[in-house]
Design goal:
This protein is α/β, with parallel strands linked by helices. Helix content is about 50%, strand content about 15%. Helix 3 (about 85-105) packs parallel to helix 4 and helix 4 runs parallel beside helix 5.
Length: about 270
């Protein structure tokens, strides 16, 4: 394993920038492999909670500084608290809450991966709604290599890739390249490193151009119906269709299409 340098204690664990309704959140612990310390988890939780309340925000891009997207949990922090089960339980609860917050957000999250994403870092990618990776990216759940099972990452991973692929991740601890991750369903698109910014900007801008109300409604509906049986899913979809079709943005979208003009969406 690579020994990571000490980080600047005064540096913000996550950076943000914003333009045209798109919020970029960038993990900022490059000397620690952007590992998820309790401080970084708390920073992400706070940023996502703020985003949920922001009616003008359309899309979130989750990125990272340095050559590692996220190396998982902070192992130094884990080692210092190895005899403290309360710390382990508390951190697991924070990560669980973070992943569920990501799913519940009204805005879609796009993971922008230009490096290694392992364990809880792989979980961040799996918990995002979409993922675009460069050919530099690698993905894995290597906990088994050091005697731990990637239990928390397993939850999100097993819901976005086939179960046999998820077991392959979890049992072998091997790193998979971006093309393999795309084939398995973890990644939507793979591009050359110099094309990553443009690819993510294009995708984020495309989604940001849609009705914020409809995108928020649709994201929530997608995750709710996918856990239902088929009859219940269709019943839920029927009720959703009625609510959606009578909403202001749906009426505006139909009118704009028929009148051959750009729709004027309301803030969420």
């Amino acid at each position: 394993m690579v020994a990571l340098a000490h980080e600047n204690p005064e540096a913000a664990p996550a950076l943000t920038s914003r333009a045209d309704g798109i919020l970029s959140i960038t993990l900022n612990r490059p000397k620690r492999g952007n590992a998820l310390s309790v401080a970084l988890i708390a920073a992400l939780q706070s940023l996502f909670e703020d985003a949920a309340r922001d009616r003008t925000l359309r899309v979130i891009v989750l990125a990272a500084t340095g050559r590692i997207f996220c190396a998982g949990n902070d192992l130094q922090e884990s080692r210092e608290n190895s005899s403290n089960p309360e710390f382990v339980e508390g951190r697991a609860a924070l990560i669980s809450r973070l992943a569920q917050t990501m799913m519940a957000l009204p805005q879609p999250i796009i993971a922008k991966v230009d490096g290694v994403a392992t364990a809880a870092g792989c979980q961040l990618v799996a918990a995002s709604d979409l993922a675009v990776a460069s050919t530099n990216a690698r993905f894995g759940t290597p906990g088994v290599n050091i005697g731990t099972w990637c239990a928390m990452p397993m939850v999100a991973l097993s819901r976005v890739v086939h179960r046999k692929h998820a077991m392959q991740f979890l049992l072998t601890g091997e790193l998979h390249d971006a093309a393999t991750a795309q084939r398995m369903g973890l990644v939507n698109e793979v591009v050359a490193p110099h094309e990553l910014d443009a690819a993510v900007d294009r995708l984020a801008s495309l989604i940001a151009s849609k009705s914020p109300y409809t995108v928020a409604l649709g994201k929530r509906a997608f995750y709710q119906q996918i856990e239902l049986g088929i009859p219940h899913a269709y019943e839920y979809a029927k009720e959703l269709s009625v609510r959606n079709s009578t909403a202001r943005d749906a009426r505006e979208g139909v009118a704009a299409f028929l009148e051959k003009r750009e729709p004027r969406w309301e803030p969420r």
